Amino acid sequence: MEEIEEIIISSVGLHNIIPLTSRCNLSCIYCSHRGNPPGLKVYRIPDLTADDVFFLLDFVDPKRKIIIGESATRIIEGEPLLNPQFRDILKIIRRRMPETEIQITTNGTLIDRDTASFLKTIEPVELIVSVNSRGAFEPHKQKMCCKTIRALEHLSTAEIPFGCSLVPLPFITGWEELDSTLKLISETNALYIRVILPGITKYSLPEMQYDFDELTEKFKSLIKEKYSSLRVPIVLEPGEVDDLRAVAEGIILRSPAFEAGLKAGDEICRINGFKPWSRVDAFQKLYAWENPELEYKRGSSLLKCVLHKGKNSPPGVIMYYDFDPQRAFRMKEQLLVCGGTALVLTSQAGFQRVKLALHKLGLLGPVEVRAVKSRFFGGNISCSGLLTVRDIISELRNLKEPLNYKLIMLPDEIFDARGRDLGGRHFSEIRNSIDIPVMLM
Predict the structure, then answer these.
(1) Is residue 9 a contact partner of residue 59, using CB atoms and an 8 Å limit?
(2) Residue 19: alpha-carbon gap to chain centroid
(3) Could you give the count of Cα atoms lying within 13 Å of 185 in the half-sphere of its Cβ?
(4) Secondary structure class of 186 (helix, strand, coil)
(5) Nearest-angstrom CA–CA distance, 86 and 118
(6) What's the pLDDT tens digit per position in 102-156?
(7) Contacts of 341 (CB under 8 A, 6+ apart)
(8) This prediction's pTM
């Protein structure tokens, strides 16, 4: 229990994420927990009480949004509205931090008119509602899809800002059902739709196996052509980036960016006179600053505008995550000190981003970048947070001898605050397996 408490505090302190429960009232066929490999060390937590959350708020950064209903640690996150003290918890957060935005991720099945009215009283709040086609549920729970759509209507009536996420399963539900679901969402006040391609492992159900690249290309085409007529911006994830330019993938309706006239495809060149280092840098500045002045490029035209917004509030620009400049500068310091060739091991999804960052830093010459395959999970899993000690050691053993690197760098997303991966293995095992300094980036 002591270890779980430490992980919860770490989740709050590092990510501003408050986990409320591990219980869920659905059984989605794409749920990541269905494809977990044996030996995965994750934790189910009991429902947190209002007193628990009051204590945890001491670790929250009030300048960043508070996130409920997501997980960045080994805690299994459930449906937050199942927590019997959900309303009391939100009231406590709002009393302690009256201006901090609260973001709640939910499946929406428990949101009725009364709940929507309550959520209105604790603004600023934004919801991310997971919406799915009927075919995404087991047969006895397919009616839940209707409850989620009704929740969107209740949130729209209460004028609560919300976006939607959807995991497409056209290889199970068919394209017509998917089209119908997207159309239903677009007829509500949804600010955006995140289409998240399903992650599958070598342990996932046979019916969940699909061609990732084929579905990616299909959706790119549909978003550009067929779905562009919908009122709401649709963004495909995981997003591909070929550069570090601060290009907007979409603009949220009725947002400061929308009111200023920004459009998808615009490249933000300067913010209050500062040239953004990357998309991440641009978004951080847009979020943090009050009424930022922008110079942006649309085609061959250079335009200007002001985003009328408060400090630490959403600008309404949707961008893919590329690379955090602070992380890049920390990497540069470590790589310059090592005094020789370095090896950077990254995930398959992070490979291009790391190369772009190193190129911008002028460090690609003395640095070799290699993408590590997820052997522990398998399937199409490609993110750093799901790599393990086993994956890293396997990659190092595949390298040709002799190894002349002065330093090896690894993504810090692999490890929790105690230095352990998802299988419970410690970072020190990697250091002990090779006679080269190993550092986290």
Answers:
(1) yes
(2) 16
(3) 31
(4) helix
(5) 11
(6) 999 999 999 999 999 999 999 999 999 999 876 665 555 567 778 899 999 999 9
(7) 366, 367, 368, 404, 405, 406
(8) 0.89
